[in-house]
Amino acid sequence: MENVISLSQFVEDFGDGLLEAVARQNPPIHDGVPDPFRDLVMDGLVRKPFDAQRDAVQAVVKLLNNAGEPAAIINAEMGTGKTMMAIGTAAVMHAEGARRFLVISPPHLVYKWRREIRETIAGARVWVLNGPDTLRKLIAMRGMIGSPSSDEPEFFVLGRVRMRMGFHWKPAIAVKKRHTRRFTEEGNERSPSFIKTTEVAACPDCGHVLTDSEGDPVPPTAFPDDVRRTCPECGAALWTLIRPGKPKSRRDLVRQALLQIPTIGPKSAERLMSVFGEEALEEMLSDNVYEFVNLMDEEGELMFADRQAARIERRLAALEFNFGQGGYQPTEFIKRYLPRGFFDLLIVDEGHEFKNEGSAQGQAMGVLANHVRKVLLLTGTLMGGYADDLFFLLWRIMPQRMVEDGFRPNGRGSLGSAAMEFMRQHGILKDIYKETEGDSHRTSRGKQVTVRTVKAPGFGPQGIARYVLPFTVFLKLKDIGADVLPAYEERYVDVAMGPEQAERYNYLASTLTAELKEALRKRDNSLLGVVLNTLLAWPDTCFREEVVKHPRTRALLAFAGSVYGESEPTPKERALIDLCRKEKARGRRVLAYTVYTGMRDTSGRLKALLEQAGLKVGVLKASVDTSRREDWIMEQVERGIDVLVTNPELVKTGLDLLDFPTIAFMQTGYNVYTLQQAARRSWRIGQKLPVDVVFLGYADTAQTTCLSLMAKKIAVAQSTSGDMPETGLDVLNQDGDSIEVELARRLAA
User: Fold this and answer.
1) What is the pLDDT, as a whole number, of residue 726?
2) CA dihedral (420, 72, 475, 694) positive or negative
3) Tell me: the pLDDT tens digits for 620-674?
4) Distances (CA, A) of 168 to 240, 243, 327
5) DSSP 8-state class, residue 349
């Protein structure tokens, strides 16, 4: 055993030889020598990339243009400037002949993308396909087909939520009248006759009478409205878009738009419409918001004061108004009406969000990736520990490579079997055998064996070498340079519970654990979530009583009364208050994360306790629209807040919270992606102050166990991010299931 060394030590001792062998077998596409022309293009950008970012752009363009690969991945740590690198890649590709670039962005970052593109590439044209006027813009895009190339690059930024949204429609048919002579006595032509008029459905374009499966004409009232149909004769659409709700007049539409603008109320809106008219205001708000900001009255005086104009301009940068047509799914329009290759590059921001097999946005991204020339995937957390995290991403951005390797849909078009085979080859599947005594026979006792297959975290070295390394550029914040970013420190603070709090927690833990063990012994998993959620949450929510009931029988399992009053902070809340006071004295703001909402909501209580301690607090909730969150946070900073309280899910992607150099986690949740993203919200390019991240946890509780398991899962995720784990088994992490299951196993042990 004394000859055993860790994998990291082995690489440190023999790394040079290993690197030479790897370089011989897999020569790198980018050897670190920059292309002079591409460097010159980046020198011409308004905002210049850092050296490490330049190197990443050079590598990506070589992979896509020189090597002819269909896709590239930038797996860069949060805060390294993935947006800047993507824009730099687009600028270089435009200089080499590319013309149009499609960006899929989280909804709250759409307008940030537009701003950064304009701030980086002089003269760039940016279309935002995220507002209610998306259909009008898509129709205008169709008119670009075959038009002469533009000298400026054209970017089309699409929010990933709107990308998969459907639309409202209704059948659109013409009504024809058919006249037939009928006799009062059927079959007797000598009996009195009369003319019978019936209405039938017809195509509004060619007039073809529409029939059912038996060839009978369809009455207009019976025309099906469950599926969009086309005319069998001329192919015209037998449906049309509709706008939900009652139609509004132009005056109502303009008034509604004005009321969305800060500092403009009903009276101001009426005054603006009476002075300038609805038509002029609609034109300004649609195409020239700066003209609106600088409106002057008849005497030449500005309508808005400087501070008011600044707020309006900032809001209008992230606001679109509904003066055009109804909604339409952009993915569907691009697939149907724009030729393949209309876009030269698809940039997928936060690419890991598209990894799920059955998600609508993942499938929509796959449609777009199959319709463009090249794909660039941006992510800070390429995988969350399981091999199939990568499978569906790879299938969507480079299907040809996956088909070449034998991963293809089955006869029903499902990828389930291919994903399972990918897991068997490159991930970890555990076959769990269970043997039970069966019925007795004459000569022997029967035994019944059942096999259950479950996936476990891990991604094998062969998979990394085949699917990650050849297409991925890795970048860490430390690669940017010590002079660019300040110091970053994460620390865990063990908080001791109060005597009564600890006593009641121990009662809850022992009672619920005993119930869980008994349920698991009977193969009943229904208590798993109830027990875990209670033991994790109760120390943080012990200011209210806890009643734990069986989810099916509703039988009482345990009860714990409240320990702390409304204005009496718990030990962890006291630790947060002390931290915030100390940071305020140093002139630093604090970002405090809490994951509990709804029945266990803690954000309102934290706000009250912090304000009671003399601190100014803002609480960001999900009710703040995603497109407004950046602007909302800026307004809070201008208001002079000391602490921002929010759920990490609301700010985990894209937002640069540079004003909050201290981050405190009251809880973390289970999601590795969210934790890694949220912890780096303020350690980004542009930060000048040292960043301090504090994890608060109650000692000797399920919270500390959960945090240790999260750390383990992060280590696995980083094995595909260019980080070297301590041992080879850390890459495979064979002892881990999901964090919930592993936590339950620890509790029931």
Assistant:
1) 41
2) negative
3) 988 887 767 877 888 899 889 999 999 888 887 667 788 999 999 998 876 776 7
4) 9, 7, 7
5) T
pTM over 0.85: no
* Angle of helix 499-521 versus helix 739-748 axis, rounded to 10: 100
Tens digits of residue pLDDT in 374-391: 999 998 877 766 777 788
Query: From CA 224, how far away is CA 210, in angstroms rounded?
Result: 11
Residue pLDDT, tens place only, 496-515: 999 999 899 888 888 888 88
Model pLDDT for residues 343-354, shown as the tens digit of each residue: 999 999 988 888
Say how far apart CA 241 and CA 328 lie, in whole Å: 8
The first and second tokens of residue 239, run together, are: 């449906």
Question: Would you list the DSSP string of 677-705?
Answer: HHHTSSSSTT--SPEEEEEEEETTSHHHH
> Is residue 675 within 8 Å of 663, Cβ to Cβ?
no
Q: How confident is the model at residue 121 (pLDDT cuts 50, 70, 90)?
A: very high
Residue 456's φ and ψ, nearest 5 degrees, are -130, 160
CA torsion sign for 53, 55, 56, 62 is: positive
Q: Which two tokens stand for residue 150?
A: 């533009």
Dist. CA 472–CA 82, nearest whole Å: 13
637 — phi, psi (to 5°)?
-65, -45
- Per DSSP, the residues of 151-182 read SS-EEEEEEHHHHT----EEE--EEEEEEEEE
- C-alpha dihedral sign at 393, 396, 401, 403: positive
Residue 194, classed as helix, strand or coil, is: strand
Nearest to 402 by CA among 448, 327, 471: 471
What is the DSSP-derived secondary structure letter of residue 300? S
| Cα–Cα distance measured from residue 104 to residue 332, given in angstroms and rounded to the nearest whole number | 15
Q: pLDDT at residue 590 above 60?
A: yes
Q: Identify the bridge partners of residue 477 per DSSP, sorted by sequence position.
A: none
DSSP-derived letter for residue 147 is: P
In 3D, which of 488, 493, 487 has the Cα closest to residue 679?
488
Q: Say which range, 314-318, 588-592, 700-704, has the weakest mean pLDDT.
A: 314-318
Percent of residues, the chain, with pLDDT higher than 90:
20
Q: Measured between alpha carbons, how far is 578 from 582 in angstroms, rounded to an integer? A: 6
Q: How far apart are CA 355 and CA 365, in angstroms?
A: 10
Residue 238 near residue 172 (C-beta atoms within 8 A): yes
What's CA 118's distance to the chain center, in Å? 23
Answer yes or no: are the C-beta atoms of 304 and 263 closer than 8 Å: yes
Structural domains present in the chain: 32-166+329-380 (3.40.50.10810), 169-241 (no CATH), 262-316 (no CATH), 426-457 (no CATH), 485-496+566-700 (3.40.50.300), 499-560 (no CATH)
Q: Which helix (H) or strand (E) holds 673?
A: helix 672-679
Flag the least confident range among 314-318, 365-369, 594-598, 633-637. Answer: 314-318
3 state DSSP class of 56? helix
